Amino acid sequence: MPETITVCPVSDLPPGAMRLVEWDDVEIGVFNCGGDYYAIEDRCSHDDGPLAEGELDEADCTVECPRHGARFDLRTGKPLTLPAYTPVDTFPVVVADDVIKLEVD
Amino acid sequence: MATPEVLAEQQSLKGINADYEERFGFHDAENYLYKAPKGINREIVEKISEFKQEPQWMRDFRLKALDHFFAHPMPRWGSPMLAEVDFDNIHYFVRASERAERSWDDVPDDVKKTFDRLGIPEAERRFLSGVGAQYESEVVYHQVHKDLEDQGVIFLDMDSALRDHEELVKEYFATIIPANDNKLAALNSAVWSGGSFVYVPPGVHVEMPLQAYFRINTENMGQFERTIIIADEGSYVHYVEGCTAPTYSSDSLHSAVVELIAKPGARIRYTTVQNWSQNVFNLVTKRAVAETDATVEWVDCNLGSKLTMKYPSVYLMGERAHGEILSIAFAGKGQHQDAGGKIVHAAPNTTSNIFAKSISKDGGRGSYRGLLEVARGAHGAKSKVVCDALLLDEHSRSDTYPTIRIGEDDVDVGHEATVSKIGEEQVFYLQTHGINEEEASKLIVNGFIEPITKELPMEYAVEMNRLIELQMEGSIG
User: Fold this and answer.
1) pLDDT the model gives residue B456
2) How far is CA B401 from CA B64, B369, B376, in A?
3) Residue B421 lies in a domain
4) What is the pLDDT of residue B327?
5) Alpha-helical segments (H) within B197-328
6) Coil, strand, or helix at residue B340?
7) Based on the structure, what is the number of domains in chain A?
8) Would residue B213 count as lying in a domain?
9) Which of A59, B243, B301, B399 has the smallest count of CB within 10 Å of its CB?
10) Minimal C-alpha gap between A69 and chain B (Å)
11) Does residue B341 lie within any of the structural domains?
């Protein structure tokens, strides 16, 4: 049974915004991409860059690592450009009672 | 008046690149349509984009890349010479002609004469499938055999490709080397101009090489070509590039970005004969992706430049993909060749070889810098890395910086490295067979690099051996 953690109220994460949450030493970036929520591990698979500090492209639903420019699909965690070539972890996001929550295990 | 003996001695004392000045070091008068003032800023980047009448997305890409360039510190590894690069003392854009012509007759006279002198039109007639000739910032001549065009092969200068095949360019541009990859890639992304775009359709084999030739003419020039090669499924292409520049007392900068994509079953061979004059910083990013059953080979020969930092890489992304890097570096007086290669095994049963040879002479410094990475899950990966250095005298230097990262148990990886000096016994042995000392040294050097020169197309192998022989002039004494 996955654990559920609370991120924030929906009103605190408008489209284009990002929130960083921590769970068990893992930092997770939660993004609002045009009304849809996605969560990925905040660590680039190339060189451990802080993905949540990168540029979010709402149209493509991607984030670009600020360190060397690898771009990740927020929906799948897969890299769309080098130098990263392995996916990062993704986490299911649920919204209940206007609160954004993450399922982690 | 000097006697023939004195002249011969003077000739041999010239040493490294003895006849560079005469063969390549000349320069033409400047009849340019536009020459940007020195220095890099937002205005220059916007001007380049405006000149080229680019779509908005490319203009935005350039400006964002410029921010990345300013934000990145200069690399603190590689070579102390990097500190000498003066970004404010470079012309970032120089336009010599209006467009890339398809006939040499339409190329401006001075420029055409230069390429004649470098033998490009002749090589094109004899053994090439297509040629792109870049002079300063832009390609002045571009042509490809009609039968290849009929088969759907695209071989254009990058500026024309962006105009004529925008969607295709957009699909691949900066996907292998993002603008923010490193400081120099960011700079190229901001001010790129020229370079080649190659697309080979599925199953098409381009039998004779495509060649690009890059020429710098003006002092303190910055040349930033951008090249993408896409070999679609089961296709084959060999791309060859050469370059030279005049000799000046102050420095120029060449910083290219080259991205290769070999689709399933395709093969790309990319050969470089780098012979910049010794006032050029050559700081280049080259990277390839090989998909399932695909092969990418880099044949990288570095003879010229003041400082070269270049590590062509292959990401083996599909099962059974193969990567090959053959690297020769010749470091003479005042030169640092920091070369090598990177291979990343990201899929099972992938194979790779890196063979690097460096020769250092007259106080030159040759470095091998390489990365071999096997990702978790890339079981059955096989790789062999061999780097050999030959020192021709006591003042020269050789360094090896190999990095190996293995994330999988079931792999077969080998690494060998040697450093040797030309042995008196070897020279003496050859002398006892009637070969003089200088010839003996040349023979030993030629034998040392032969495993790589034999991979060059014949015409280039001959030229390479000739260049090496010239580099060897005066190496005895």
Assistant:
1) 80
2) 33, 5, 23
3) yes
4) 95
5) none
6) strand
7) 1
8) yes
9) A59
10) 5
11) yes
- ipTM of predicted complex: 0.91
- Other beta carbons within 10 angstroms of residue B38's beta carbon come to 15
pLDDT in tens, B45-59: 999 999 999 999 999
Q: Is the pLDDT of residue B474 over 60?
A: no
Nearest residue on chain B to A82, alpha-carbon basis: B176
Q: In chain B, which among 371-400 make CB contacts under 8 A with chain A?
A: 375
The DSSP line for B64-112 is HHHHHHHHSPPPSSS-GGGGG--GGG-B--EE-SSS-BSSGGGS-HHHH
B245 is a domain residue:
yes
Residue type, B252: S
Contact between chains at A86 and B317 (C-beta distance less than 8 A): no
Mode of pairing for the β-strands spanning A55-57 and A62-64: antiparallel
Which domain, by its residues, includes B206?
Answer: 21-472
Find the domain containing A16 and state its range: 3-104
What CATH code is carried by the domain that includes residue A80? 2.102.10.10
Task: Please name the residue that has the structure tokens 């200069």.
Answer: B74
Quickly state the pLDDT bin for B427 (edges 50, 70, 90).
Answer: confident
Interface check B177 vs A, CB under 8 A = yes
Can you give the pTM of this predicted structure?
0.93
Mean pLDDT for chain B overall: 91
Nearest-angstrom CA–CA distance, B200 and B216:
29
